[in-house]
Backbone:
């Protein structure tokens, strides 16, 4: 398959599952923003604005995570309900191209929602040249490991309804219980140890330190956070490459 055909396939998938739904199903964008904006609202009200920075940075992480985990529902729907994956398997389109196109389509579809938090982030004065690079890098890794996890799970689901059970559970384990919307230091020592099993803990630590005034971490701690995030992302991509079921057994 030539590079030209790969690019054309990528664009077709992005258009099919990303650009067209923005125009035809705009209410899904509200659904995407419902949870992060709700958290932001309650954090703002309860803290009287003192912790709004954590609500905005947490919203960025949750929205980007949702852009990755949302892939499991679409892939399962295309695979079982529409039999679209069977068509792709029988076509010259390679598995990496299909997965990349679908993942990019989810990201493109989520851009309006991500844009809301980017605007809030900038308006509140959290943006800075170095901090923005850190935040962007972290968000890309969050989207990456969430996409790899979603793709692997989707290849094992037999019904799209199964994703309705796993999606809230993933969100709970990765964004509600871990300190994404508050600093890790607010947890008791035993809870901090448990929180460190979630990769979003390290993502939030980096984003908060890079953008929230008064928050900082040591160089050594930052190196550990980056190492864990990169390691988890690579590990989940390896699992996706070797354990995902591209073809029906």
Residues:
């Amino acid at each position: 398959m030539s590079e030209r055909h790969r690019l054309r396939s990528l664009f077709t998938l992005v258009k099919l599952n990303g650009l067209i739904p923005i125009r035809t199903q705009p209410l899904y964008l509200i659904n995407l923003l419902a949870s992060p904006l709700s958290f932001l609202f309650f954090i703002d009200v309860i803290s009287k604005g003192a912790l709004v920075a954590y609500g905005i940075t947490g919203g960025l992480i949750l929205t980007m995570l949702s852009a990755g985990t949302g892939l499991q529902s679409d892939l399962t729907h295309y695979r079982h309900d529409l039999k679209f994956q069977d068509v792709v398997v029988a076509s010259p389109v390679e598995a990496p191209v299909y997965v990349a196109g679908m993942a990019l389509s989810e990201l493109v579809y989520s851009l309006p929602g991500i844009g809301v938090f980017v605007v809030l982030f900038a308006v509140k004065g959290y943006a800075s040249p170095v901090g923005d690079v850190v935040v962007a890098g972290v968000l890309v890794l969050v989207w990456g490991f969430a996409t790899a996890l979603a793709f692997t799970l989707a290849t094992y689901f037999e019904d799209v309804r199964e994703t309705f059970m796993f999606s809230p559970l993933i969100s709970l384990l990765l964004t509600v219980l871990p300190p994404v919307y508050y600093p890790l230091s607010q947890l008791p020592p035993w809870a901090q140890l448990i929180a460190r099993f979630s990769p979003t803990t390290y993502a939030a630590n980096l984003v908060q330190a890079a953008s929230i005034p008064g928050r900082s971490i040591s160089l050594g701690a930052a190196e550990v956070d980056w190492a864990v995030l990169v390691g988890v992302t690579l590990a989940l991509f390896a699992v996706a490459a070797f354990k995902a079921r591209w073809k029906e057994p």
Notes: Residues 129 and 210 are 10 Å apart (CA to CA). The mean pLDDT is 86.
